[in-house]
Every structure is written in C-alpha cells, then in structure tokens.
Design brief:
With 341 residues, the protein is an alpha/beta fold. The chain has 17 helices and 6 strands.
Length: 341
C-alpha cells in the first residue's frame, strides 16, 4: 500500500493496525527519520521494555542476513511488542528485508518493521515489494516547498498559543531553519518566551531573540559564495560540524533561487531594495542589504551556470562513497568564481 499526500500525516499520527511493515524513503531524510521515530513510539505503546526496539544498520544486516528476521521473531523481555528499525543505504540489505516482508505476507508471528531507506527512487525494487504487500505500507518524503514549511510552522505556533504582531510572523518564518526538526525547536523556544507574556510577539522581541540566526555558519557560507568570496565561504563551511554536503549544496541553491526571483523583479523595473522587500518568504532583516547588493552582481546567465554547478555537484554527492564535503566545497568555489566573470 502506498501512502500519499494528505494521507501521510494521518497515517503517521494514527497508523493502520493492519500494517506490520513500513518503508520510509525519499530525499527529505529529516521527515523520514521523524516519521520512523513516531511509528516506533506508536508500535511500542506503553511497554516499559528498554529493548523493545532493535535498531539495525546496513552493516549489521549484511554481516548476518538472518539477523533481521531473528530480531522480528524475538520475544520482548516483558511480553510486549517487538519493533525492528532498520536504517539502510543502498541495496545490500534488500534480500533480508524482502525475506522479512514475505514472512509478514505468510502471517508469521513477527514484530513491527520500520525501514528507513534514504533517497530511493520510486522504481526501486524495495519500493515495489512494499507497495504490493498486503501488510505493508510505503511512504515517500520529498522536499517541502516554502509554502508547506510556512503552513507547518504557523500550525505549530498556533497549537503552542503563540500570536504575532503585524509583520512579526513573516519575519519569524523567514528566519526559521529549513530543517523541520530545527524549526520545531525554534518554535518551542519561542513558546517558552511567549508563555505569560500577555501580548503578541513583536518584531522587537524577535530581533532580540534571534540575533544570531542570520549569522549561522551555513548562512554565512552561502552568503559569502553569492558575494564571490570563495575563501570566506569555505572557511564558514569548515566550522560546521556533522553537516552533509547535500545540505550545504541545497542551502546555496535556495539562496540562488532567492536571487533569481529578485533579478526577475529588478529586470521588470523595480529597484534592488524594493525587489528584496517583495520576496516571499521575507529575507531575514539582517541580510536585506547584503542580498540587495548580491542581486546587482548576478544576471540570468550567471545564475543558470551556478544552478548547473550545484545540480551536478548534488548528483555526484549521491554516489555511494562520494566525498560530499569536498564536492560541496568545490561547488561553493565554482559559484563564487562566477560573480567575478
């Protein structure tokens, strides 16, 4: 069974009890991981068994192909449900997962299986097997649009009883991290600040609270690259711990999309500062002057060349064993070099 569209949230919030195995995949790995966490918590229920969830990686399954089915067949120490959460990358564990899936199809007394499979294609064999199985579900998570991110953030802020003054909400949305988990933490922090405040959040509140948001290393790196400052961009990237090259590439891609929209407005007769003011989501207040200056440096030809560099780099980064950080750094240098051409 394939879960799509609005049904995804309903399924994750209230899973179908007939489903015993779930495949989560797609380019939005943050969403896949968040969904896996929720499904594991639901499957365990009120069990107090600390070993109810068995986590297996690619190497665990490759070394012992029977380990996955053995873990699903094991009995919980306290008699509760057994959950196996497999995080895989590539096809090395496919055969073992398909064996387990066939066990579910034979109605064998197995536990609950969650497979987090990374950025699989929709035509991958594992996707086909889970889609066709009667006791399994497939959920694909793709990158959110700006509108979808804003909708989620507004809904979460409303649930946490956060209200905003005029224009303050737009400023807050523009400053939120793209990553869903990080954005949620920022909204939770704002909820703590707003609790007992007795009035809506103002722009002044946000400026005080988010002084460092626009100065994050990733923002600094993408900003420097768009200004043609390659050395500064690479230095900023080097300060980021445990950041994937894909994330770095997409951060710069988002900034260039922002500049492309600004250029279209400028080419239509609008001043750079007015064009920046029209962008949605709004440009973070501390970056507006810098982005307006960048918009003067870029034209359609340069932007197209930059997009080619980033898309090519992302494709190379998705190759097994690719040095993502080095590929991202090279792409940042290539984009920065275009500014002076």
């Amino acid at each position: 069974m394939k879960i799509q569209g609005a049904s995804i949230r309903r399924f994750i919030d209230k899973p179908d009890k007939a489903v015993r195995a779930v495949l989560l995949y797609g380019p939005n790995e943050s969403f896949s991981h968040e969904a896996a966490q929720k499904l594991a918590a639901w499957a365990v229920g009120k069990s107090d068994d600390p070993y109810a969830v068995t986590k297996l990686g690619d190497d665990d399954i490759k070394k012992d192909t029977a380990r996955l089915v053995d873990a699903l067949s094991a009995q919980s120490l306290l008699g509760g449900p057994t959950v196996v959460w497999a995080r895989i990358n590539g096809k090395g564990a496919d055969a073992a997962i398909v064996d387990a899936l066939e066990g579910f199809e034979r109605d064998e007394p197995l536990g609950y299986l969650i497979v987090e499979a990374g950025d699989l294609g929709s035509t991958a064999e594992l996707v086909k097997k889970f889609t066709a199985a009667k006791n399994a579900a497939v959920v694909a998570f793709y990158e959110e649009t700006d509108a979808e991110r804003a909708q989620h953030a507004r809904g979460l802020a409303k649930d946490m009883a956060i209200s905003f003054d005029r224009d303050a909400e737009d400023l807050f949305l523009s400053a939120l991290p793209v990553d869903r988990g990080l954005a949620t933490k920022e909204i939770e922090k704002l909820a703590l600040y707003a609790h007992g405040l007795g009035r809506p959040i103002s722009i002044a509140d946000l400026e005080a609270l988010m002084t460092d948001e626009g100065e994050s290393a990733l923002d600094a790196a993408s900003l420097a690259a768009a200004q043609g400052k390659a050395a500064q961009a690479i230095e900023a990237l080097a300060r980021i711990d445990a950041l994937s090259g894909i994330s770095a590439l997409r951060a710069l891609l988002r900034r260039l999309h922002q500049l492309r929209e600004a250029r279209l407005l400028i080419d239509g007769g609008m001043s750079p500062s007015d064009a920046i003011g029209k962008l949605r989501p709004p440009v973070f207040w501390k970056e507006r002057d810098a982005v307006a200056a960048q918009a003067r440096l870029w034209n359609g030809k340069k932007l197209n060349a930059a997009f080619d560099i980033l898309w090519s780099a992302e494709l190379r980064s998705k190759t097994a064993g690719a040095p993502q950080e080095l590929i991202a750094a090279d792409a940042y240098r290539g984009v920065a070099k275009l500014v002076g051409n």
